[in-house]
Amino acid sequence: MESPLCVSIFLVLCIFILSSAHGQSPGPEPFGRSHAVETGETLQETETRFLLFEDKTDKGCQLQLHHADTLQQCGFNASLPLVMIIHGWSFDGLLENWIWQMVDALKSPLVQPVNVVLADWITLAHQQYTIAIRKSRLVGQEVAALLQWLEESAQFSPSNVHLIGYSLGAHVSGFAGNYMGGKHKIGRITALDAAGPLFEGTAPSERLSPDDANFVDAIHTFTREHMGLSVGIKQPIAHYDFYPNGGTFQPGCHFLELYKDIAKYGLNAITKTIKCAHVRSVHLFIDSLLHPSMQSTAYLCSDMDSFSQGLCLSCRKSRCNTLGYHVRQEHRGKKSRKLFLVTRAQAPFKAYHYQFKIQFINQMETPGKPTFTMSLLGTKEEMQKVPITLGEGITSNKTYSFLLTLDLDIGELVMIKFKWDNSAVWTNVWNTVQIIIPWGREPHYSGLVPKSIRVMSGETQQRTTFCPENVDDLQLHPTQEKTFVRCEISSKKLKRKNR
């Protein structure tokens, strides 16, 4: 459960934002799609510092607007794409450590060479939140001015630009795309848990939207609401909107971890714990850079409830995509696509998704709500006693679908051991049934009969059917375990049916 302390601190933060807004409303400033960047004589220099990093150990070399010599001095390579990192609002006036982690990841040998630039607007971001919002428009204009100058002076196309904005920086990226104009569209914008307060529900011109670049992707990690506000924006704002673990909160970010973090980080752990789910978007993106062979797949779905039933694991007709840096830039329409996935609590974050469909015959007199465990044997690994909760009573001859995620790649699934958990309540019920019902000499079946288990792997898209190994003993009673093996004929029929 959520810690009351966590809620209290979060509400204080929300109240701070609301109190800052009192008498300080940003209001609808002029900001339309027709606005162009004022360069040349108008905008000669920027308050934002643009730092170019040549390698992982570099501290950054400042690119200065209309100073072409700084391009050569800093080592800008016009033949390579440009990736620009844009941080968000700051309440302590310091650049956060994740920035340097992302720079390192982008300059890693695992990634194709790119120009890496940081848009350092910390002096403008270290303001009251509502003031920082107003300043973010100026920063967006300055980013656009730099990109237009690069196009004019170095023949560098904006289509080769990838803006990565975190929190308020995501909307800065959108403002930059707005100011660039339709003929000079930015190639890609990635929003890492774009800021929610005072942006949720606003018009597309007042926030990041799919119109701001040729391709926009967004990762939502902290959309849980308190007092009508959420730190991260909940509504779709991109071509592809990714919602890891539903997007509301993230595993491993509970206040139970605070004591461990205090021992490791001191009092800074309080801020670290509060921001954990918000900044998880950043670490998911960095993870996609550092683990190219362990990319996380997300699946098109209407909501997390449907996803939790395992109903959305199909990749047909581009219904799935890769989270992070290596996303497939396929969908360019105006309508946003919402994708869901489950992740681990720590890096590497990749989890493996399976849909299980189990058909039961309930031979008890009343519907049951038992709990089960499954042991899964794969060609690579074995997972023991994975808990299963169906969430509803088992009625006769019904198929139940649910999502199961694993932290390990077990390979191709070859055997399932299905166990009815040892529950004192269910054991007593079973014993009572045994006493009350006169069985006689003829075999009388009473209990649960799992007829078949159908499995679909989200990552491989493989579908397999499993049947009871012992067809002479189909009944499942409390504490009992049944083994299911592949049904070769059923699998082939199923494959033919889905072609």
From TrEMBL:
Name this polypeptide is given: Hepatic triacylglycerol lipase
Tell me which SMART domains the record gives. Answer: LH2
The UniProt entry, under Pfam families, shows:
Lipase (PF00151), PLAT (PF01477)
The listed locations are: Secreted
Q: What class of enzyme is it?
A: hydrolase
Q: Which UniProt keywords apply?
A: Calcium, Glycoprotein, HDL, Heparin-binding, Hydrolase, Lipid degradation, Lipid metabolism, Metal-binding, Secreted, Signal
Kindly list the biological process annotations in GO that this record carries: cholesterol homeostasis; cholesterol metabolic process; cholesterol transport; fatty acid biosynthetic process; high-density lipoprotein particle remodeling; low-density lipoprotein particle remodeling; triglyceride catabolic process; triglyceride homeostasis
Q: Which PROSITE patterns match?
A: PLAT
Question: Which terms in the GO cellular component ontology are assigned?
Answer: extracellular space; high-density lipoprotein particle
Subunit organization = Homodimer.
InterPro entries to which the protein is assigned, alphabetical: AB_hydrolase_fold (IPR029058), Lipase (IPR013818), Lipase_hep (IPR002333), Lipase_LIPH (IPR016272), Lipase_N (IPR033906), PLAT/LH2_dom (IPR001024), PLAT/LH2_dom_sf (IPR036392), TAG_lipase (IPR000734)
Active-site residues (renumbered): 167, 193, 278
Instruction: Give the catalysed reaction(s), semicolon-separated.
Output: 1-(9Z-octadecenoyl)-sn-glycero-3-phospho-L-serine + H2O = sn-glycero-3-phospho-L-serine + (9Z)-octadecenoate + H(+); 1,3-di-(9Z-octadecenoyl)-glycerol + H2O = 3-(9Z-octadecenoyl)-sn-glycerol + (9Z)-octadecenoate + H(+); 1-hexadecanoyl-sn-glycero-3-phosphocholine + H2O = sn-glycerol 3-phosphocholine + hexadecanoate + H(+); 1,2-dihexadecanoyl-sn-glycero-3-phosphocholine + H2O = hexadecanoyl-sn-glycero-3-phosphocholine + hexadecanoate + H(+)
Assign the protein's first listed, main location to one coarse class: secreted
Q: Which GO terms describe its molecular function?
A: apolipoprotein binding; heparin binding; lipoprotein lipase activity; metal ion binding; phosphatidylcholine lysophospholipase activity; phospholipase A1 activity
Gene this protein is translated from? LIPC
Task: Report residues binding Ca(2+).
Answer: 207, 212
Which SUPFAM superfamilies does the entry mention? alpha/beta-Hydrolases, Lipase/lipooxygenase domain (PLAT/LH2 domain)
Q: What does this protein do?
A: Catalyzes the hydrolysis of triglycerides and phospholipids present in circulating plasma lipoproteins, including chylomicrons, intermediate density lipoproteins (IDL), low density lipoproteins (LDL) of large size and high density lipoproteins (HDL), releasing free fatty acids (FFA) and smaller lipoprotein particles. Also exhibits lysophospholipase activity. Can hydrolyze both neutral lipid and phospholipid substrates but shows a greater binding affinity for neutral lipid substrates than phospholipid substrates.
